[in-house]
Design brief:
mainly alpha, 0% strand
Length: 177
């Protein structure tokens, strides 16, 4: 009997006893995992070098970081603004807060409708103020983000002024010449 036939017979035996084979493979993997865990648990923890308590010099200038630190260090009172206090105290695991979340969403949607109407009426400053207020209390309000982008783009592109045609008198309305 040559080796090919022996492997063929062994393969048939393994295939016929696949449930036992899988059990043995899982058992071997389990033993290996327990051995690795035991080795890791018995080795000492590496020592972490604590840096000296001197002030660290920043490697790169970072204006956003400096702005954030100034804002954190300023004496802002979150309790003064009720909407910011709601965000700070929000607890996703408490049903009462989740219900309030739905109320906040509905309130943000109502404000957004008012801001969208103001934007359509051309009152861009009022619309921007309301949209920014919505984004303070509900930063993930997508429609408000999109409207704010529209407002910013509309301010970035000035309204073109009509150019007078040559020979026309701008003081006299058309049709009266």
């Amino acid at each position: 009997m040559d080796i090919k036939e022996q492997f063929g017979i062994m393969w048939l035996k393994v295939k016929a006893n696949i449930d036992r084979t899988v059990f043995i493979v899982f058992l071997v993997i389990l033993v290996i995992m327990v051995g690795i865990y035991g080795y890791e648990a018995s080795s000492p923890a590496p020592e972490i070098a604590i840096p000296p308590s001197t002030s660290m010099k920043p490697l790169l200038p970072n204006d956003n970081y400096n702005k954030a630190i100034k804002y954190i260090q300023s004496n802002t009172n979150l309790d003064a603004n009720e909407e910011l206090r709601k965000i700070r105290d929000f607890n996703i695991f408490d049903y009462k807060y989740v219900r309030n979340r739905d109320e906040l969403q509905k309130e943000a949607d109502k404000k957004f409708e008012r801001a969208a109407n103001l934007y359509r009426d051309g009152r861009i400053d009022d619309a921007e103020k309301i949209v920014k207020e919505i984004l303070l209390t509900w930063p993930s309000h997508i429609a408000s983000k999109e409207l704010l982008e529209k407002i910013i783009k509309s301010r970035a592109t000035p309204t073109p002024k009509p150019t007078p045609t040559p020979g026309a008198n701008p003081a006299v309305p058309p049709g009266m010449q």
